[in-house]
Amino acid sequence: LDISQVEDNHRQDSADLLIFIMLLTLTILTIWLFKHRRFRFLHETGLAMIYGVLVGVVLLYGVHVPRDISNATLSCHVNASPPTLLINVSGRFYEYTLKGEISASAISDVQDNEMLRKVTFDPEVFFNILLPPIIFHAGYSLKRRHFFRNMGSILAYAFLGTVISCFIIGLLMYGCVKLMKQVGQLDGDFFFTDCLLFGAIVSATDPVTVLAIFNELQVDVDLYALLFGESVLNDAVAVVLSSSIVSYQPEGDNHHTFEVMAVLKSFGVFLGVFSGSFALGVATGVMTFTKLRDFQLLETALFFLMSWSTFLLAEACGFTGVVAVLFCGITQAHYTFNNLSPESQDRTKQLFELLNFLAENFIFSYMGLALFTFQNHVFNPMFIVGAFLAVFLGRAANIYPLSFLLNLGRRNKISSNFQHMMMFAGLRGAMTFALSIRDTATYARQMMFTTTLLIVFFTVWVCGGGTTQMLSSVVICNRADVVFISVALISNSVGVDSDADNSGSERRSTKQESAWLFRIWYNFDHNYLKPILTHSGPPLTVTMPTCCGPLARCLTSPQAYENECQLKDDDSDLILAEGDISLSYGDITVSTDASGVHTSSGPAGTTTAAISADDLDRELSCGDHELVMRGTRLVLPMDDSEPPLVDPRHRMRM
Amino acid sequence: LDISQVEDNHRQDSADLLIFIMLLTLTILTIWLFKHRRFRFLHETGLAMIYGVLVGVVLLYGVHVPRDISNATLSCHVNASPPTLLINVSGRFYEYTLKGEISASAISDVQDNEMLRKVTFDPEVFFNILLPPIIFHAGYSLKRRHFFRNMGSILAYAFLGTVISCFIIGLLMYGCVKLMKQVGQLDGDFFFTDCLLFGAIVSATDPVTVLAIFNELQVDVDLYALLFGESVLNDAVAVVLSSSIVSYQPEGDNHHTFEVMAVLKSFGVFLGVFSGSFALGVATGVMTFTKLRDFQLLETALFFLMSWSTFLLAEACGFTGVVAVLFCGITQAHYTFNNLSPESQDRTKQLFELLNFLAENFIFSYMGLALFTFQNHVFNPMFIVGAFLAVFLGRAANIYPLSFLLNLGRRNKISSNFQHMMMFAGLRGAMTFALSIRDTATYARQMMFTTTLLIVFFTVWVCGGGTTQMLSSVVICNRADVVFISVALISNSVGVDSDADNSGSERRSTKQESAWLFRIWYNFDHNYLKPILTHSGPPLTVTMPTCCGPLARCLTSPQAYENECQLKDDDSDLILAEGDISLSYGDITVSTDASGVHTSSGPAGTTTAAISADDLDRELSCGDHELVMRGTRLVLPMDDSEPPLVDPRHRMRM
Q1: Which of A1, A11, A648 sits opposite B251 (nearest CB)?
Q2: Is B103 on the interface with A (CB under 8 A)?
Q3: Pfam families per the record (chains A, B) (predicted)?
Q4: Given 1.10.510.10, 3.30.870.10, 3.30.1360.40, 1.20.1530.20, which CATH number is that of B123-250+260-481?
């Protein structure tokens, strides 16, 4: 009786999970078909959502598994809802765990379809299992020269812009809600904090979608850096913003009005949580100073575990795991990555790429499914129209004024085309969904969830699908550039690459003025942090003042001495394309000439080759490719029949 | 009130999970130290267990988190224990899900330490999440020539041997239990079916441990094949055996005695479930006929999802997921692997290797932890001594008589040294643990769990740690062999290797007689299945009778024609080292001369080099290396300074 029931349950669970796996498989097959045929009008995430919607419709109308009759309501005389419950059924004790509160109406209404109830996941799954790999991957693949170049603008968009957008949307929605109350369209409570929370939730633009779409198109590198950097960081901002709004919200207290003190308190919580998560992420990222180069499997496993434990540690400390994992990813890409063996660099990259791909497609499928299978939808046309308008205006109030202000400081202006593109490409995705599904207990939250879902659908299908057209209409892709690359092939893995574009000289002088903060940090990083934390860079004994000699000697790893005469690829990653920086140590000299082209002379010969602008663009516009191309890199096209003289330990990709 | 409670819970959960991650990290770091210093007296799995035990002691005596006061027992007047419960707490409805039954004694006794309760996982986690990757990896890395050579013996040990062992142990334990009842040492019921179940549980020897230990030692290839093959397959047998015993057990009925009809019925269930799982696994394995070679990420993701969906599908159909996943792995290694792009071959291999490593170490850590944190241990000295004796005798009754019978048919006898080694290396590990923790509700099951845990500890620490000594004492490692290898380097990835050992000629003639069944299958597989299911092998148009021409043409993939003049590495994997098989098609001829050494002549030149026996041994004795070495394979030692003329698309490992 009991065992067979448990077994039936288990079988049912397997079947439910199988639905999702099949959905993913179907999506992958269709993506392949699309890539094969070069369809571009619909993105793969949009596709996953369509399949999700279809399966949702089938589940809602096609399959009907009646709810177990024994799930009758118990009217127990308890005055609390403990997380664990022991029930005494005629002498035998059964343990029950709390799943959540159910609104009284839901029980009588739709709740009788067992299947729909089963395919509804615990919202925490999204936050604790599916988001971390996505966010980590974003951080891990963020290590782009162009990201660091546009650091200031990205930070402005991500922090200031998200906060502006959050408040604009919050205020507009508060007006909308007031109006609805007047018209009599609102059936429940909707406080100002709810409006602000809604603003925080829908302010997070999605790095996943941006990455996926722009990765395939050959888009301007600066636009890509701005969009991707902003969307990665504003996710973190939105998470912390929403959780500080929620934590401010006094429970049981109906005093949900605007107060300066409360806002300041929220701001304090925001800063505390954000900086805590940031510090934790960076600390664990730096700590993962692996020396296990000889055992790739151990190395990869350790890398994976450290990333995960960052997340858990942050959550256990009451910080935000997602933010910690983001900065852990960035730090690991910057420091730890250099300590890994070439094989582990490949492995970790591929592993996180796969996890990211699966998690991303799962979330988007689930979103499609949730449109029909989620049981507490509250479709309110007026709220939805208001929200679309507010989101549009909020994004506009983020991009245009900030761009205007930033352009005052930048000599390399963000053109109006760029601004329109950023406006258009502010897709909402996985993070927005995860934030909004986290709590759907009250009427207000349910309405917010439904509206958020529609916003995500609209932006992914319409904006995501139309990006290609939009890009070609505003002509941002700079395919006509002619780029020369000098590839230095020094015996033991040195690849130096650079890019020069039309506005090269103008841009260079801009940097000279605006990036002084960055320059200071770069020098500190290059001379002290990198030598301490990785085996690359100049030994500390060279860079530190002579008085610190003994300290320097004890902090420098033996390998750093071996590498002394090697210029590591990643160092040149950060070199600004300026004429005034010239690094020289050991017997290698890297100098940058006036046209922004690096020339490199080392003990081994150098090769110079011209490659097409398209090749370079593709390379630069995709963040995670860079991680691949870190061993000996050959950018020059070559015949298979003419194998080069290269150390076979290093792998080449072309 | 409510939200903060949930948050506290979440924080606590994160901290608990963090303990396990830290345990794993610690294990990895120590493993690295051990490998670095070349310690061999303790295996890494044993190490993981030791750390688990230490943390368990700390949790039990050092940390005391009192149980939440609100978890008081509710005495509800219900007459069932439904999987879902709706509780009406003063007008608000809360949903609770059933976690399991708790024995009345446990509630008052130890149950007050919340921490211990939290680190106890749902047993289903082991079966549904941790075991599948381990088992799949075992199947995926099983593709060894030596496995197929010893197929008959392996099947005999795995099927017949496990059943013998199960019944011997069951009968001995039944005697032991009877005795205990007489002496008054038994406090609860212990039926004959419980004894049989115990036999089935502890009969499963562990491929994980065998693989891990023998991988590093340079052991005789045939011994390795016998041990590894047996332990992989007997896991599957034990799972099905135990579940058919459980399904036979009539609930509520105390008539647990031996009946011929019941045994026959169990046998029927066994056959049904096993063949169902087998068919399902092979079917999905074959179905994964990927053609997505151009998109490695999609390919890897699809491969991963198909393996997982095999497991879920089997569970949903009421078969055994673990068995299905095993055969899915074997089939995919044999067919699908050839269709993958070289990059995906690496990726999938590395992915499953990592998953396997993490899951394995997690299980062993958890085992150590469970020794102290599991709340319902029943230590019964008499039962434990009886069980150790029974396990020893059961293993002996499996190995020695079967070896004797097999030796009647084999000309290449299994020497007594081999037999002692197989006896000694029958470690119990993850599978035994997962099977025994699956149900610990009754007194008998709790006693079985405790005893099983001790058996696992003993075998892993004593037998696992002593294997090196044992191996050197019975001198099975054949380091003195001199082996010549001819490596054929044909323009597009052909590597043929073979091994010849002391008893070469004797062994070859053995095969000629005993492996006729295998030969028929091999020919069928080579001529029909491989061409249909992969792009390798001769086109069907060549191998099929002329009358089936149109059918053959439509079943042959275009790539197979391109590959026509290539001899794929894996085909030669299965070629028996006999003088009478000579394959010839296209312009390549591979013939085997009398001394068992392949000579190969192709359009490109051939190279012959002598390599040390140690190198070859190491290569042959590790199953999963083979998966790596499938591109162009170079077995000859070479200087880095002299790069060979090889197509750079293919990767080399040395």
Answers
A1: A1
A2: yes
A3: Na_H_Exchanger (PF00999)
A4: 1.20.1530.20
